[in-house]
Amino acid sequence: MSAAFVRMETLPPRAAPFAATGLWGWFARRLFATPADIAMTIIGFAAFVLVAMPLFRFLVFDAIWTGKDRDACLNAAGACWPFVAAKLNQFVYGFYPYEELWRPNLVFFVGALLLIPLLIPSAPFKRFNAFLFFGIYPVAGFVLLTGGNLDPQRFLLGRFVRIPEFIDLSAIARFIGVSGHVELGSRGGFRGTFWIDFIASAILLTGAVAIIARLFGTRFVTSLKAMAIVFVSLALIIAPVDADFGLRWVETREWGGLLVTLVVAITGIVAALPIGVLLALGRRSQMRLVRWTSIVFIEFWRGVPLITVLFFATYMLPLFLPGGASIERLVRALIGVALFSGAYMAEVVRGGLAAVPKHQYESAAALGLGYWKTMGLIVLPQALTHVIPGIVNNFIGLFKDTTLVQIVAILDLLGQVRSAFSDPNWSSPTTLYTGFAFAGMIYFVFCFAMSRYSLFLEHRAGSNALRVEGAMR
């Protein structure tokens, strides 16, 4: 038995569905999709009204924008932006000589000019750009900021042997056509005794390392090539900073502000990744000496607070240097930050190496690839892609940790802001909050930019992986 039903009247029109696209669709999907989402939206909006709106009112609506001294801000209920405008040079450059500010400005401009195309995946000449940014730019930036012409006295052998007593420098000077005797004329900023010391030390160290490596089974010629590359690279770094370009010498104690923050952060970021990769590979090495050395290094630096590292590098390191040798305070801090961040980066990279499937190694071995080609062409690209969030997280943490250098009397951006509060010409009730708000915005811009670029790289790596998987199918 079956029953049939026929509706005799037309159904009334139903309400149109909520927009699934556009701005209203975004609100529906993200903010009002479920009762829980609606509750969280209301709570978030209330928090925004209670916290963000007073802050926005302090920074914008109630703020003072013009003025020449503290009188303009004495009775203000908002931020005192004339204070920031008056101290802007100090916040950016510290006490760098005013007439030489074109040098850090040129360093900033060239750095941005090289970095922007390096961050764009489709930009051409990527390798050449990377060589300029990581190879040439640091040396050129150091020469511009300091003035170069370091005038080094001794390298290694010269610390134990007086070279003029064993080598007739006057004869060498006459042979190469340089007037002078003991210092070979010191033409163009180059000191003859130092470079003779450098060449002799390089020859002795290269031979010693090659012989020791041969005893452990490494080919003699391979060790010679490796050491030759090391010393040639070192010479290419020292030669420009030793040359005399006619620039005024500016001591690092005159640097400060955002300049020091960027120098410390960029040095730590650039040095952390290669140091971390080498330590991570060393920790997984089959050679016991390399593995245990890497483990001890990583665990030691990860077990010591960065403040302790900075104190040791600043005040204790000079006690271990040979007599007469000295390293500038900022350079010592840079060395400590680079080693510290490299140890933390090693554990991030090691996690990425552990995530690479074993069959990738087996496939590389089947193709006849050696260890370094396997790592450089197959394993490391995958491992670093896996840990992009961890790498960028370390970079962001390092950028914020640069504020710790003020503990050892190096005034970074936050240190310069704090020192500017002591100026009686700008002493007002809101000066303190304005300075910290300005510093906070600067840190937020840099850290937020790094996090968004990290997200872009993740999405791009995921899209490439899906494209490759689809092609394989």
Description:
- With about 475 residues, the protein is mainly alpha-helical.
- The protein has a domain at about 150-245.
- The protein has helices at about 20-30, 35-60, 80-85, 90-95, 100-120, 125-145, 170-175, 190-215, 220-240, 255-285, 290-300, 305-320, 330-355, 360-365, 370-385, 390-400, 415-420, 430-470.
- The longest helix is centred in the C-terminal third of the chain and has 42 residues, at about 430-470.
- The chain is flat, with a radius of gyration of 30 Å.
Number of helical segments? 18
Q: Could you name the ranges where pLDDT drops below 50 across 5 or more consecutive residues?
A: 175-185
Shape: flat
Ends apart, CA distance between termini:
53 Å
The ordered H/E elements are HHHHHHHHHHHHHHHHHH
* Strands, count: 0
Describe the secondary-structure layout.
Blueprint: H1 22-30, H2 35-61, H3 81-86, H4 88-93, H5 102-119, H6 126-146, H7 169-176, H8 192-215, H9 220-242, H10 257-283, H11 288-302, H12 306-320, H13 329-355, H14 358-366, H15 371-386, H16 388-401, H17 413-420, H18 431-472
Helix pairs in contact: 5-6, 8-9, 10-11, 10-13, 10-16, 10-17, 11-13, 12-13, 13-15, 13-16, 16-18, 17-18
